[in-house]
Amino acid sequence: MEKLKLQVINNTCEEEKSCSCCATDFFEEKPEFWRRRKLITGGIAGALLVAGLILEFLTSLNIIAQAVFVAVIAVSGREILKKAGRSVLKRRLDMNCLISIAAFGSFFIGHGEEGAAVIFLFFIAEALEDYAADNARKSISQLLKLAPETAKVKRQGREVEVHVHEIGIGETIVIRPGEKIPLDGKVLVGRSSVDESPITGESVPVDKAEGDAVYAGTMNEEGYLEVQVTKKTGETVLSRIVKLVEEAEKKKSSTEKFIDRFARYYTPAVIGLAFAVFIVPTFILGYQWDVWFYRALVLLVISCPCALAISTPVAMVSALSGSARQGVLIKGASYLEELNRVRAVAFDKTGTLTKGRLEVEDIIGFNHHSTEEVLSIAASLESRSEHPIAKAIIRKARSENIPFREISGFRAIKGMGLEARIDGRTYYAGARNLFDELSIDIPEELARFEREGKTSIFISNTDRAIGVIALADRIREKAPAIISSLKRHNIRTEMLTGDNTQVAASLAEKIGIDEYHAQLLPEDKVKVVERLTKKYGTVAMVGDGVNDAPSLAAASVGIAMGTIGSDVAIETADIALMHDDLSKIDYLIHLSKKTMHVVRQNVAASILIKGSFTVLAVLGMINLWVAVAVGDMGLSLAVILNAMRLTKEKPVVEGNQPHAHSP
Questions:
Q1: N or C terminus of the chain with fewer C-beta within 10 Å?
Q2: DSSP 541-565
């Protein structure tokens, strides 16, 4: 009955090709570990090998022993022999051919036990590689299991628990404390804190209230929520993350492509060398043929490029999967490799280096008007406006419990400010040009706000100015530390902004940026990125998504900030940071350098050990057992374990200061 239920659900999922739950076999009924096919095959082959060795060395039943060794090859080498046959038919010899030739050659010279051991150990090596590599690939796919397959939906005045596939956009789902959010949506009722770490990598819970967005797979920690569904299962942020990572793992870096090309020519060359090792000493120099034939077989096995072939892909997959778990989506291994070569980083200002939200910084009253009175009048005037400046002033007044006053005769003066009557008197709020128009003097000493890059809003009545409110876009807390960290990596930093020169100069000085470019249009930003590319070679551009799309595309690597919930930004950027956390830039640079360091370690170890063992094989100092157990299986496993360390890499931040990493 349970199997039938699972089958029905899976059939449903065939219609939902991009289902966030079922795309990674969420409902697949996994067999117990001991029942898995490879383990059973390995167990049978291992038992046969032991039995064959007992028969050969402890009895006189040598013929039966050889038959048992053949059985070992039949059980554990079926796939290896099939792959070897296919590669021969395609005339593209691979490592399976090398192992097959060595195994059958061993029987030919009376060492059937070694031939069986070669196939068995190679089978174990491949099984271990598959297991380890699969774990690396699944590290991100496991995130999907965070999204529950059922949800409580409000229908006809009551709660009904249904499968997530049956929930439509616009329906209301109920999430109680301690429950996981099943689908993306918008909070209709309730307040709570939500753990969004599976998506953003941010460990601090985020407060949610009415109107806020919530995402599938995140945890509702303490409050009751009613959420209106905005996306179906295959369209959630979580499911898009997994799809993008799976696609990224298929895109090869230039290093991977080189290794692939190298392996294509390497295998035939090794077979040719093995034949030469056998033929030259035997037929030209007259040495004993069986000795050199055996050495040629050992050479074939030791020269298998298994470790070399997987040295780069497994490192890249581990890094891509690990970064996704930290809320950093890298669209392909090539971008990770490019980051290692970055010599300059261009930052957009608003929304990237700053929070993209104006805050009131200074309030000054003139002519005996208090700061509270100035803020009260300004907030009352701005209460009818939706401008970001108005919202900032209103937030400030509410935070300080400043009373709002009744207004009448409200009028927006296009491009300059606002006018309204309060207690029978006319008041104005606006920029300096409005007061030039009204012939009202503004104290000149307030020019310092402009020098500091602040936006000034003046408040006046019909006779004189009564005060000024200065606003600024707050710098992100970690911006100076990240700029400093990049400089330690000898990476140049430049800022691109559409703001005026004074604002740009003030911010650049505060955070320590190397150079700034102000009053830029989108096309101007592209030109600056292109100039940087010509000068420095590899350039990364960090922006806040859609508005910076042209310059992100022009850079060698485009990094979009804070893209959670932004479909376009996730799709267009080369790398997407799911949370507004600049420390992830430091993490990215560190991860790219660490990944390429691991790749170099793996490649160097593969070449060095294989080269050393090749010399030993020709000199007859190692046998087939050692060749496979150490030079092939052992080396491959070491390469995989070294690469899998990358899945554990995390951003290291001490306060607001990024920790200096070493590869």
A1: N
A2: EEE-SGGGHHHHHHSSEEEESS-TT
What is the residue type of 308? L
pLDDT at 5 over 70: no
Is residue 239 within 8 Å of residue 22, measured between CB atoms? no
Higher pLDDT, 308 or 536: 536
CATH superfamily ID and name for 338-354+477-592:
HAD superfamily/HAD-like (3.40.50.1000)
Closest C-alpha among 251, 267, 343, 328 to residue 300: 267
| Mean pLDDT, residues 304-310 | 71
Q: Looking at per-residue confidence, does 257 or 520 come out higher? A: 520
Topology annotation, domain 356-475:
Calcium-transporting ATPase, cytoplasmic domain N (3.40.1110)
Strands 492-496 and 344-348, bridge-based pairing: parallel
Does 98 score more than 90 pLDDT?
no
Residue 323 has pLDDT above 50, yes or no: yes
Counting Cβ atoms within 10 Å, is residue 272 exposed (0-12), middle (13-18) or buried (19+)?
exposed
What is the SS3 assignment for 382?
helix
**Catalytic residue flag (residue 348):** yes
Six-digit token string for 106: 């061993």
What is the third-level CATH fold of 148-234? Answer: 2.70.150
What value does the mean pLDDT of the chain take? 80
- Please tell me which residue in 94, 195, 348, 544 is annotated as part of the active site: 348
